[in-house]
Amino acid sequence: MYAFDYHKPANIDEAAKLLSESEEAAIVAGGMTLLPTMKQRLAAPEALIDLGAIPELVGVREDGNELVVGAMTTHMTVATDVAVNKRIPALAKLADGIGDPQVRNRGTIGGSIANNDPASDYPAALVGLGATVTTNKRSIAADDFFQGLFETALDDGEIVTGVRFPVPDIAGYQKFYNPASRYAIVGVFVSKTGNDVRVAATGAGPCVFRVPEMERALADTWDPTAVDTIHIAADELNTDLHASAEYRAHLTTVMAKRAVADAR
Questions:
Q1: One pLDDT digit (tens) per residue for the chain, 264 residues
Q2: pTM score, whole prediction
């Protein structure tokens, strides 16, 4: 690990100011990805700006028919929060399946979505629920936030402050995970609110994506059998040592069926 300056600002304005003062500074949330990368000398920020001392970035609160989750809220908090388990139990289940207890107690929702690992779970929840990402500058619809492999809509100097999740009528999440890392080889989040149905897949491609064919089928019939015959094209899906693109295409349908069944 190379030498770096360390800052722990007390509020978002101070964090944004520190970030603007250096082109090579990096935000650290839970540090689950950044710190191992730095230890391997694959990243060398000249300064780390730790958001851990900013109280308004932590916690879950209800705001009408939305749940607002602060960016520095840990996966474990999301998994065990009473409001999350009552209003969006599928989100609590998703958080409870991330990594191991050490990761769940250190990793944060803001750090996860800002990193946008193609195999992470939260992008499926955000897109699958039509959530909104809030930053120190604006609000960004989840459909627009995730833009590609490790790429997001965040501008230079922009800091994620939280996520607003609309509460659905019903939702479910299922993933086929790597047994070592518990990253999603394929994970599918489904939700239904009135006549609006969303299906979002993570792990399968370079970035989270929606499956319109499944959304239309489930809008007509909310039942696992509705997606039985829908097959995802493997052309743009991931192939690696864990699974081929064709296998991931198959798993997307399987996980979608299980997610709908789970939501029932």
A1: 899 999 999 999 999 999 999 889 999 999 999 999 999 999 999 999 999 999 999 999 999 999 999 999 999 999 999 999 999 999 999 999 999 999 999 999 999 999 999 999 999 999 999 999 999 999 999 999 999 999 999 999 999 999 999 999 999 999 999 999 999 999 999 999 999 999 999 999 999 999 999 999 999 999 999 999 999 999 999 999 999 999 999 999 999 999 999 997
A2: 0.96
Residue 182, Cβ density class (10 Å: 0-12 exposed, 13-18 middle, ≥19 buried): middle
Place of tokens 């089928």: 217
What is the sign, positive or negative, of the torsion defined by CA atoms of 48, 53, 56, 61?
positive
Count of the separate structural domains present in the chain: 2
> CA-to-CA distance for 96 and 246, rounded, in angstroms?
28
Domain membership of residue 246 as a residue range: 170-263
> What's the distance, Cα to Cα, between the start and end of the chain in Å?
48
> Which CATH number covers residue 212?
3.30.390.50
Query: Which CATH number characterizes residue 13's domain?
Result: 3.30.43.10
Residues in the chain: 264
Q: Could you identify the residue written with the tokens 């989750």? A: 69
Is the separation of the CB atoms in 68 and 84 below 8 Å?
no
CA distance 171 to 91: 8
- Inter-residue contact 130 to 143 (CB < 8 Å): yes
Using CA atoms, how far residue 159 sits from 45, 77, 107, in Å, is 16, 21, 16
Residue 115 lies in a domain: no
